UniProtKB/TrEMBL annotation:
GO annotation, cellular component aspect: membrane
The organism's place on the tree of life at top rank: Eukaryota
Record's bilayer topology term: Multi-pass membrane protein
Name this polypeptide is given: Facilitated trehalose transporter Tret1
Subcellular location: Membrane
Organism for this UniProt entry: Melanaphis sacchari
Gene Ontology molecular-function annotations: transmembrane transporter activity
InterPro entries named among the record's database cross-references: MFS_dom (IPR020846), MFS_sugar_transport-like (IPR005828), MFS_trans_sf (IPR036259), MFS_Trehalose_Transporter (IPR050549), Sugar/inositol_transpt (IPR003663), Sugar_transporter_CS (IPR005829)
Length: 470
């Protein structure tokens, strides 16, 4: 006798999304790992010695292949399926972290960072599209916002481990995350949208083969001693129509229903990255240390990580209650205001500056001057993480029509990762040559102009089916 348990659909959807979200923790760990790795490698007791040039390569090595990986991830999930693609990504992810933990020289660190960065890019499109396709529209926004939460949780986890453990042990522990994600994904279903598309492709192949004169299956043997059977009545009925073939990538670029979402989402990613989400997060530790010189650098980083994680939880609730456009506009306006306040609270010219320009930019601590940068940074972390950070990733799985969802998601996230790498590379030069204040003014201006653009151009996808959003 078997006991039948009726599991509510929402729990099934949570379970289906949990595997990719667990692996996404590894993406956050990849982003935050350099803050753990580099200080320990520069320590005099380190067994691997690095130069300043090698330090910059280690920091950017993971960002280099992310854009390429996102395009490959889009292609793979169309050919192999969302679930299979996510399973395959877990294998090199584990190998990449293992390579870092076992590295005997800087080349081993390069290889591991390159592999984990590639997997981070590969993971972006299939995770967003899979979660969008396996969740109901009323839960879809909150489920997709969990991607940003997982990244924030991964950053906090790796920084916490790095505070107490060596980098080799930290990377070994990080390798268990994609392994656990693989085990969960194994028991989750394939996306029903992809299964329908795959069945349409198979039907099209069978019917095309039959029309071409080659039967799709061998004919049954005929007994010549028996009279031929009468044809069944079903043969009089018309066969089901041949499913339309999906357009090629070149054909997609000729359709406004593809180009429009691609342009809007690419601009959204541009606003996200040029709001300084990564540059400000990096230099905010230096700003806080100027206010309190005795603060521990790792503790400052963890405090900011906790704020980011808490706001990511808040964003999950906000995306379920409020529309995408209104949330994006409020986030961009708040980000603009907090960046302009931060820029006004620092004083520097940038001329002949060094890497410590962010420290020199803060005026001597007074009751007002010491609080303004801190409050501005906290306000910035809140506003940027409720909208500009999660929404482009959420909408990359929602905005594109079914015939080009894989291509559109892959290309838009590729552009987002390329902007991420660009900002990481140019931010030190901006801070050195034009100064901290002017750099933050530029980031704030981009956020303000972006708010106007998002208000005018961003479509609303909340509580709409994937077919309605297109």
């Amino acid at each position: 006798m078997y006991l039948k348990v009726n599991v509510p659909p929402v729990f099934k959807q949570i379970f289906a999304a949990s595997g990719p979200l667990i692996v996404t923790l590894g993406s956050g760990m990849t982003v935050g790992f350099s803050a753990v790795l580099l200080p320990q490698l520069k320590d005099d007791r380190s067994t691997i010695k690095i130069s300043s040039h090698q330090e910059s390569w280690i920091a950017s090595m993971a960002a280099l292949p992310m854009a390429v990986g996102s395009v490959l991830g889009g292609v793979a999930m169309d050919r192999l399926g969302r679930k299979t693609t996510n399973l395959l990504i877990c294998v090199p992810f584990v190998l990449g972290w293992t390579a870092v933990s076992m590295a005997t020289g800087v080349n081993g660190v390069y290889a591991g960072r390159l592999l984990t960065g590639l997997c981070t890019g590969l993971l972006g499109p299939p995770t967003a599209v899979y979660i969008a396709e396996v969740t109901e529209q009323r839960y879809r926004g909150a489920a997709l916002a969990m991607i940003s939460f997982s990244v924030s949780a991964g950053i906090l986890a790796v920084h916490t481990m790095g505070t107490f453990l060596g980098w080799r042990l930290v990377s070994a522990l990080c390798s268990t995350v994609p392994f656990a994600g693989y085990a969960l994904i194994w028991f989750t279903p394939e996306s029903p949208v992809w299964l329908r598309e795959d069945e349409d492709r198979r039907r099209r192949r069978r019917q095309t083969t039959a029309v071409g004169g080659v039967p799709s299956r061998p004919p049954p043997e005929v007994d010549t001693q028996q009279p031929p059977p009468s044809p069944p009545a079903e043969l009089d009925a018309q066969p089901p129509p041949l499913p339309a073939a999906k357009p090629t990538a070149r054909q997609c670029f000729g359709r406004p229903s593809f180009l429009g979402p691609l342009a809007v989402l690419s601009a959204f990613f541009f606003v996200q990255q040029f709001s300084g989400v990564n540059a400000v997060a990096f230099y905010s530790v230096t700003l806080l240390k100027r206010v309190g010189p005795d603060l521990n650098e790792y503790h400052c980083t963890m405090a900011l990580d906790v704020i980011r994680l808490a706001v990511s939880v808040l964003a999950c609730g906000l995306t379920k209650r409020y529309g995408r456009r209104s949330l994006a506009v409020v986030s961009a306006v708040g980000t603009c205001a907090s960046l302009l306040c931060l820029a006004a609270s620092v004083r520097d010219t940038g001329a002949q500056s060094t890497g410590t320009v962010a420290v020199q930019a803060i005026p001597a601590p007074t009751a007002t001057a010491s609080l303004t940068p801190v409050l501005s940074i906290v306000a910035y972390m809140v506003f940027v993480n409720i909208g500009l950070v999660p929404l482009p990733w959420i909408m990359s799985g929602e905005m594109f029509p079914g015939y080009c969802r894989e291509l559109g998601s892959g290309l838009s996230t590729c552009f987002g990762f390329f902007m991420f790498y660009t900002v990481i590379q140019i931010s030190p030069y901006m801070l050195t040559n034009i100064g901290t204040s002017m750099t933050f003014y530029i980031f704030g201006t981009v956020s303000g102009v972006g708010a106007l653009f998002l208000y005018l151009c961003l479509p609303e996808t909340k509580n709409k089916s994937l077919e309605d959003t297109t």
